[in-house]
Design goal:
Helix content: 10-25%
Radius of gyration: 16 Å
CATH topology: Nucleoside Triphosphate Pyrophosphohydrolase
CATH class: Alpha Beta
Order of helices and strands: HEEEEEHEEEHH
Largest sheet: 4 strands, mixed
CATH superfamily: Nucleoside Triphosphate Pyrophosphohydrolase
Oligomer: single chain
Strand content: 35-45%
Number of domains: 1
Distance between the termini: 39 Å
Strand order of the largest sheet: 5-1-7-6
Number of strands: 8
Number of helices: 4
Structural class: alpha+beta
Length: about 160
């Protein structure tokens, strides 16, 4: 089956991002699924032909009105059927607002409050802590014959 026959969304690949600005983290209150009513980091599914970094940028803009770009890769979750990558989402510009669909609230929440809030799921809290520590795998330049491939690795591997 060709990719075009599957539709535009790759349901087995998704990304999220932790955006921190002025001691606050950007969270969105989900309106559906297991995350309904929970404050989570924005993100979503990768479209075919899109890199995870492009997905992060698109999903943040769609869901929050905030423009970001991918920083360090701070978390990965794998299973036999899918993967989820979490990036440090570097704030560029924009005023936070709800998309009125996938979320009904988008807020900048004090990091300490977010880590103590029972409507913030454990995975989101873990990713916030990783982002605050400033650790993760940075994008490392390398030459590839295939465009759109990026390498995230420890900086001292160069």
């Amino acid at each position: 089956m060709e990719t075009a026959d599957l539709g535009k969304t790759n349901w087995s690949q998704s990304v999220g991002g932790v955006c921190i600005k002025d001691g606050k983290v950007l969270l969105a209150r989900h309106t559906y699924g297991n995350g309904k009513g929970m404050l989570i980091i924005p993100g979503g599914y990768v479209d075919f032909g899109e890199t995870p970094e492009q997905t992060l940028k698109r999903e943040y803009m769609e869901e929050t009105g905030v423009s970001v770009h991918a920083g360090r890769l701070i978390g990965m979750r794998f299973s036999a059927k899918d993967w989820y990558a979490v990036f440090e989402a570097i704030y560029e510009e924009g005023e936070a607002r709800s998309d009125g669909d996938e979320n009904d609230e988008v807020i900048w929440m004090d990091i300490t409050d977010a880590l103590a809030d029972n409507t913030v799921p454990d995975l989101t809290k873990k990713m916030i802590r990783c982002a605050v520590k400033g650790e993760g795998l940075p994008l490392v330049p390398y030459e590839s014959k295939v465009q759109g491939r990026n390498l995230y690795t420890f900086e001292d591997c160069n």
